[in-house]
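Anyone up for a design puzzle?
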C-alpha cells in the first residue's frame, strides 16, 4: 500500500530527514519507497515562516508508470520546426510513441549559441538567426528556467520528469516554484538533443523554414541552409510548427502559404531592477538571508489598464534580447544559484487591438517592432534606455544611479521612457508603481531602475488549429507552443508539444 500525507510543516532550519521519520513511524519500519511530492515556502506570517510538504511512501512497493502505446504502421516522416521547449518535447514524445522525428532549427546548437550570445552581450555583432530568441532551447535557454505554470493538465508532471531525466535537479519534481537556471538548462537541452539523436531522430541547425504547402496527403516544405544559403525541398507526412513568439518573418511566410491566423493582444513595458536583499527583506523580514532568494508576483488594477509583473528573476540580470537589427528588446535571466546582486522582473501594461493603429493581422507585431526601434534610436548600438523609478514618477530624466546599478550588458543611457513607450503605457505605470509598492515595500523605491523595452511577452498572432491539432487550412501541419499562440512559458510550451505528438500518434494509428 502506498501512503500519502499532505500539509507537513518543517521549520526553515529543520532537516528533511524528519519527513522520513514521519513515514517510518506510520509504517513501523523504514520505507522502501519514499518521495517528496510537493515543497513550498509559507511566508505569509514573518514570525512563522516554514516549509510545507506533501510526501508519498510505502513499505514494499512503488507506483508503476503506464506504458505508452507505440505506433506500429509504415514509417512516417515527421519534421518538427523549432528546437525550443515545444519542439524538443514534441520530439521526445514522438520518440516515446515510436517515431523518429527530424528537428530543424534556424539557430545554432546550444554550445555555439552560448558563444554567439556572449559575444553580442560583450559588444559584438548581433547574429540575426542565432541569439537570445533563436537557437537550440528557444528563448527560455537564456532565462531563469522557471518550470512553474498556471495551466493544469496531465502533461505537466511528465514535463518535469523529462527535465529531471535529462539532468535537471531532482527538486524540480516537487518544488512549488521549480527552476533550473540558464546555466544548468544549457546542459539539459544538450542532453535532450543527444538522446533524440541516439534514439534515431535527427537535429539540423542553421536551417530556416521558408515555405509550407499541403495537398491533403502530406506536406512539402522549402528549407534554406543558413550557412551555405542553399535551398532545398522536402516531403513529410506531418510538420509541427514550434516556431517561437519572435519568428516574425516565418509568421508572414506562413500567412502567404495559406495558414489561417488571428491577431492576439499582448503587453509591453520595461524590466525593473531592485536589490535582491531588499526584495528578500520585504518578503521575509530579518530571516531573508537564511532562505532562498525571494521572488514576487504583483498585479495592479489601480489605473485604467492592468499592470503586472512577469518572469521575475531573483538574483538575475537584464539581458539584451534583440533578434532584429536596429531594435532594443530586454529579457531577464538567472543562473541556478540566483546569486546576483539584483532582482529583476518584467513590468508590463496590457494592450488591446485599438492600441495598434490598424486592423491588419500583423498590426500588433509591427507595433512591437516600432517600439523596439524607437528605443534603439534613443540610445544606439544596442544600449538600452533607463530611468530611475523616482525620476520616472517626477517626469525627470535621471542623471545618476542610486543604490541599484543596472545589469544590462550592452550598456545603458539615461532617457525619458515617456518618449519611448506609448503615453497610455507610461501613464498607467505611474499609477501602478505606488500601488504595487503598498504590497511589496521596496517596489516603488526611487532608486529602482527601469530598463526599456520589454516587448516579447507573448506571440502577437495565433496559428489557428482544429480539434485534431492540425492547422484549420493546412492538413498535416500542426501549430504548437508559444509562438503559435497556445502556451506561455517553458512548462506549458513543453506540455503543448507533447499534446501535439499524441495527436499525431492518434491520427496515424487510426490509419493502420
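Challenge accepted. My sequence:
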Amino acid at each position: 500500500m502506498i501512503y500519502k500525507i499532505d500539509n507537513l510543516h518543517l521549520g526553515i532550519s529543520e532537516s528533511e530527514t524528519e519527513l522520513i521519520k514521519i513515514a517510518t513511524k506510520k509504517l513501523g519500519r523504514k520505507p522502501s519507497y519514499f518521495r517528496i511530492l510537493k515543497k513550498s515556502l509559507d511566508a505569509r506570517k514573518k514570525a512563522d515562516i516554514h516549509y510545507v510538504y506533501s510526501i508519498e511512501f510505502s513499505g514494499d512497493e512503488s507506483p508503476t508508470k503506464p506504458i505508452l502505446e507505440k505506433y506500429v504502421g509504415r514509417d512516417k516522416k515527421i519534421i518538427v520546426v523549432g528546437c525550443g521547449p515545444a519542439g524538443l518535447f514534441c520530439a521526445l514524445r514522438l520518440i516515446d510513441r515510436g517515431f523518429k522525428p527530424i528537428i530543424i532549427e534556424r539557430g545554432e546548437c546550444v554550445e555555439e549559441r552560448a558563444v554567439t550570445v556572449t559575444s553580442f552581450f560583450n559588444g559584438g555583432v548581433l547574429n540575426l538567426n542565432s541569439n537570445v530568441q533563436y537557437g537550440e532551447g528557444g528563448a527560455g535557454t537564456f532565462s531563469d528556467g522557471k518550470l512553474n505554470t498556471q495551466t493544469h493538465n496531465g502533461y505537466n508532471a511528465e514535463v518535469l520528469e523529462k527535465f529531471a531525466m535529462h539532468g535537471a535537479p531532482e527538486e524540480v519534481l516537487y518544488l512549488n516554484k521549480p527552476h533550473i537556471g540558464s546555466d544548468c538548462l544549457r546542459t539539459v537541452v544538450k542532453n535532450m538533443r543527444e538522446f533524440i539523436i541516439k534514439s534515431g531522430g535527427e537535429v539540423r541547425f542553421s536551417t530556416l523554414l521558408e515555405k509550407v504547402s499541403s495537398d491533403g496527403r502530406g506536406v512539402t516544405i522549402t528549407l534554406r541552409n543558413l550557412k551555405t544559403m542553399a535551398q532545398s525541398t522536402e516531403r513529410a507526412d506531418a510538420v509541427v510548427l514550434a516556431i517561437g513568439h519572435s519568428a516574425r518573418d516565418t509568421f508572414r511566410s506562413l500567412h502567404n502559404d495559406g495558414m489561417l491566423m488571428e491577431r492576439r493582444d499582448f503587453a509591453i513595458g520595461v524590466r525593473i531592477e531592485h536589490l535582491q536583499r531588499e526584495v528578500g527583506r520585504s518578503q521575509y523580514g530579518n530571516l531573508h538571508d537564511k532562505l532562498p532568494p525571494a521572488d514576487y508576483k504583483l498585479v495592479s488594477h489601480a489605473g485604467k489598464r492592468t499592470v503586472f509583473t512577469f518572469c521575475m528573476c531573483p538574483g538575475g540580470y537584464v539581458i539584451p534580447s534583440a533578434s532584429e537589427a536596429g531594435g532594443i528588446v530586454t529579457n531577464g535571466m538567472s543562473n541556478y544559484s540566483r546569486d546576483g546582486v539584483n532582482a529583476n522582473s518584467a513590468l508590463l501594461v496590457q494592450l488591446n487591438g485599438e492600441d495598434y493603429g490598424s486592423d491588419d493581422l500583423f498590426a500588433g507585431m509591427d507595433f512591437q517592432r516600432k517600439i523596439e526601434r524607437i528605443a534603439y534610436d534613443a540610445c544606439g548600438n544596442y544600449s538600452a534606455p533607463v530611468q530611475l523609478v523616482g525620476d520616472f514618477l517626477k517626469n525627470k530624466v535621471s542623471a545618476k544611479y542610486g543604490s541599484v546599478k543596472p545589469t544590462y550588458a550592452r550598456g545603458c543611457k539615461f532617457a525619458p521612457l515617456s518618449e519611448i513607450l506609448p503615453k497610455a503605457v507610461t501613464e498607467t505605470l505611474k499609477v501602478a508603481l505606488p500601488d504595487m509598492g503598498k504590497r511589496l515595500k521596496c517596489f516603488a523605491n526611487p532608486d529602482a531602475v527601469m530598463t526599456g523595452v520589454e516587448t516579447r511577452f507573448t506571440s502577437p498572432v495565433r496559428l489557428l488549429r482544429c480539434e485534431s491539432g492540425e492547422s484549420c487550412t493546412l492538413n498535416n501541419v500542426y501549430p504548437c507552443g508559444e509562438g503559435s499562440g497556445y502556451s506561455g512559458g517553458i512548462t506549458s510550451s513543453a506540455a503543448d508539444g507533447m499534446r501535439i505528438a499524441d495527436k499525431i500518434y492518434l491520427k496515424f494509428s487510426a490509419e493502420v
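A detail worth pointing out: The chain has a mean pLDDT of 96.
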